[in-house]
Amino acid sequence: MRLDPVHTIPVGAPIYTEDGEQIGHVREVDGAFLKVDVALQPDYWLPTSAVLSYTAERVTLAFKRDELGDRKLARPEP
User: Fold this and answer.
1) How many domains are there within the chain?
2) Is 20 helix (H, G, I), strand (E, B) or coil?
């Protein structure tokens, strides 16, 4: 899914992986990256290119929960 504009991803929406696991909430959208707010863990970034679909109530990623570790970014890449 191509996101135009990326700023339409709703801040505060829950984020789910493709297999239905909730991983956190959207804290911030910065260009082509979104910051994931995770309870009791450090926040991290994901590229918006990883978003499969989104609505005001839900963001779904195009990968499964067990792939999350390979996708996390400490900060947006330039």
Assistant:
1) 1
2) coil
